[in-house]
């Protein structure tokens, strides 16, 4: 998601960005002091529906929600910089791999909540309570409707077949989505088989890894390649875009939920945790419980064409059209455990 830069330049960029981060009424004075009527949220999300939900939360609880929006990496760097003086109570970010890193870097604290445990399936939250899933996304196989018969492609493992030579599109292995997905393959298949898979996919690349998930979809439409590994909501966004050209692009792409006869498709989350030094811890937990409640779940997931974590919540119409699927129920904390191994495998096998 974030562009990479040399660490010196990166630090400078981050401090510059820290200054210009969209900050909505965040009180920097009074850092670290308990304020019963406030909860400070650091979020990678910037949807209007989130703001509406936070207002609803305030209506119900009299707790003001103050939001700082920035990219996940910027928010984590900021939390690290601020340390115990941070005004943040809640971190909302994407990918269990990244939440695991936040936990490892000491940026989160454990929470025990019956409401969270009841609402969120066990595999979508940290067994120790450091982070909780709010929405789910699926790592799907997107393909050209014109040039690919979906029957030809059922599992992630199929991407190594000879028929896909010169046709596979992917982003770089630096990306947390790819790292977490490979970590799930290491957990399912073991490191040797996972590495053989990476080598096979690399051999079938249509071009060197580049761009974000949307760029992979654009390159399918442009005929650069025929099949891509992407998160499901990127296709949902195109199909529901305001711009007709984007919608047309979305219609050229078909989607496959992989590994339906086996372990299921790899799912990941956007998730939430209470920050290590939260001045308003109780309010933070109340906000999290609100976000997994019935009222919030549909709107929160639908804003980005994701799936609610809570059972029995209606999905966005596009997701209903795609239909039901089998999801891998590997506990997402295990992705974090295999994170480093996945990075090394990518490196050895030449997925740059
Ligand atoms: Fe994304």
Oligomeric form of this entry? single chain
Ligands bound here?
fe (ii) ion
- Helical segment count: 15
CATH topology of the largest domain: D-Maltodextrin-Binding Protein, domain 2
The major pleated sheet works out as: 11 strands, mixed
Gross geometry: globular
Rounded average pLDDT: 92
The helix/strand series, from N terminus to C terminus, equals HEEHEHEHEHEEHHHEHHEEHHEHHH
Structural class: alpha+beta
Helix content: 40-55%
CATH class of the largest domain: Alpha Beta
Q: Segments where pLDDT lies below 50 for 5+ residues? A: 1-9, 11-32
Number of strands: 11
Q: What is the CATH H-level superfamily of the largest domain?
A: Periplasmic binding protein-like II
Overall structural domain count: 2
Keywords:
single chain; 352 residues; alpha+beta; D-Maltodextrin-Binding Protein, domain 2; 2 domains; 11-stranded mixed sheet; 15 helices; 11 strands; disordered N terminus; binds fe (ii) ion
